[in-house]
Each structure stands twice: as structure tokens, then as C-alpha cells.
Amino acid sequence: MVGGGSGGHITPTLAVASELRQQLAKDQLYIGYVIGSGDKLRSTVADHPAIQSVHSVHSGKFRRYHGEGWRQIFDVVTFLKNLRDFFYVCFGTIESFLLLRKEKPDAILIKGGFVGVPVGLMAALLKIPYVTHDSDAVPGLANRIIGRWASTHAVAMPIDIYSYPPNKTVQVGVPISDAYTHVSAAQQASYKHELDLDKHNPVLMVTGGGLGAQRLNEAVARISKKLIARHPQLHILHIAGPGKAHSLQKQYQIALGTKAIQVIVKEFVPDNYRYTGAADVIVARAGATTLAEFAAQGKACVVVPNQQLTGGHQLKNAQVLEDANAVVIVDDSAVQKNPEILLQQIERLLKDAELRKKLGAALHKTARFDAAQALAAEVLKLTEKSQSGS
Fold first, then answer.
1. Taking the model in full, what pTM does it have?
2. Using H for helix, E for strand and C for coil, what is the string for 110-161?
3. Would you place residue 80 in the very low, low, confident or very high pLDDT band (cuts 50, 70, 90)?
């Protein structure tokens, strides 16, 4: 298993690992995980029961930002970071070569992220078969670099929107934890109780994904005073991201004073499904994995895609769902200029239970619950071929 850099890479991979572990006895399967050196989410992988060992290799990403065009070339800081990371990748390829020679895996699943590049290149050199997986509508650069040597390209969305060879591409959806299931009114009340919240009080959940979203964090904190004033019983559950919780909590305290007790701020939670399950309205970025989790639960979402991410993939993820009338989209740049725009959409959903129900039902229709099984099946096909020598 290879992936890292964000929860959107790690969560689906661990879901597949769990599925493989259920299908095969412990003595029939050994699962190791390769993650980038210094990855903040390493402990999430190391603590997972399906993973026997965790290895780190150096790597680095090529920084380029959607909509910036050629102007990025003249940004000295970006250039120097890219140059540094180029040497990280070179060092990582040596580490990957030594690791793969030692472990001798039958097959590799590369979820994406920059750590996949050195591992994928060395897997190709050593003729170890691997599957790549893309959750987003736009394939990541790492998977595009190593894609030509992949045995299979597993993708989340219809095959025809990807540039991979159709005969090597299979649609499997986005693997998510089986903890994410449709949330009934009774289940929502149960989740609220587990979090010590009154089942009759509305709950707003805010998340920027596994690494958080600074701009989104600040925007919600700025409108929190008006939100609480208009909805005095409102609870806000805010997953800030690693290293962002302390400063965000201070912002809420300044904005709300004693009312800040109605806000729960966490850096990261392993039982995220409880928090999202308890929510009446969710405000989030448009990462494919988080959207798949919300779809499984059937939640009403206000989506604020990050426009700067490579290839505008969050914009395209969100657009697919907006076309299905399944989410409300708010423009990120507009929110930065005027957070009231976000406030209006949150208010609209908090006040309209019927609209929340309609959006949640439409989003739930896009959910695929067998994605982990489907991707696990592709990995097992490779292991069988590898072991048979074909």
C-alpha cells in the first residue's frame, strides 16, 4: 500500500486494506504501507489493525497552482522548494529500490500523492505489478507520471473522462470506511448523544479534510457570531487540521466569548463518521474522499472547492455533484472577500429541513458502497498473476 500527504489518500487505502484483511487469513496476507517521510498522518496508518508495518521514503511534490499559469515560474520560493524536492525524489527512489528488493511484494496499490512517484518508478524497474487509484475527476500528477507502467488504473468516476487506456482502466468508485452508512434521524440522534450534544439542537460540521483548510477555518470563525446569534442553540463541530486547532479555538473565543462553549474544535478525529453523522449541515472542501463519505451518509452539504489545487480537480468534483443537484457550491474567492456569502447558504439550509432532506437524498444516490471490495479485487488479481508467474 502506498499513499500519503492527506487523509484523502490514506483513508481509501486503509479501507481497501481492511477489505483484504477480511477476505484473507492473516497467514495468507502481509500488508505493508509506504508513506512519505515526515507525513503528519503516519500515526493514522501505524495504528490501523490491517497494517503490519509502515515504511517511509523521501519524496517531494511539484508545486503548481491552478489559475496561476506562467507567473509561478518567477516565484523564487516556489522554485527553490521544487528544486529541493527534486533531490528528495531522487533520494526516495534509492530508498524505494532497497525497500522493494527487501520486501518483494507480489502487488502494490498506489493511491496517489507524491510518495507514489519513487515507489512506482522502482516497482516498474523491478517489474512488480501495481494498481493506481484516482478519486478525483482529474488524475493527480503522481499517478500520471507512473501511469504508463501500471497494470491497472482504478478510477472513481466514469472511465471516459480519464485519459488512461480504456482497456487498462476500471471504475471502482472511492473506497471509504464501512463506518459510513446512511444516517437516519434516529442514528443522527444517537451520534449527537455520543458527542454529548442535545438531539434537539442543530449541528453545523466544518471540515477542510485530513489536513484542514486555513481559509475556510477563518471564514467560518468570522461568521460564527452571527450564526450563534441567529441560532442560539447551534453547536459547531470544527475539524481544523493538524496544527490549526489552537489558533482557531482562539478565534472562536474572541468572536463568541462565553458562547464559544458551543464550539468543539479538533485537529483530527479517528471517528469522523460520528461528527459528520451528528451534523444537520456540513461545510467542506471538495475532496473526493470526503464527498464520498458524505454521500454514504446522505448529508446536506455546502461545498467550498479549493480553486488553487492542481488542475482545478476540486472544482470538477463539486461540479459533477452540483449537476446532480446534490450539493450547494460557494465560490472560495468570493467567501474570502465576503464571508457573508457562506453565512447565507448555511442559514438557508439550517432553516429549511426539506431542502436538507432533498440534497442529502440526491447526494446519497451518488454513493457506491462496494468500492473497497472492487479495488481489493483488482489488487488480488495482480497478486494471483504474480504468484503464478504469468
1. 0.84
2. ECCCCCHHHHHHHHHHCCCCEEEEECCCCCCHHHHHHHHHCCEEEECCCHHH
3. confident
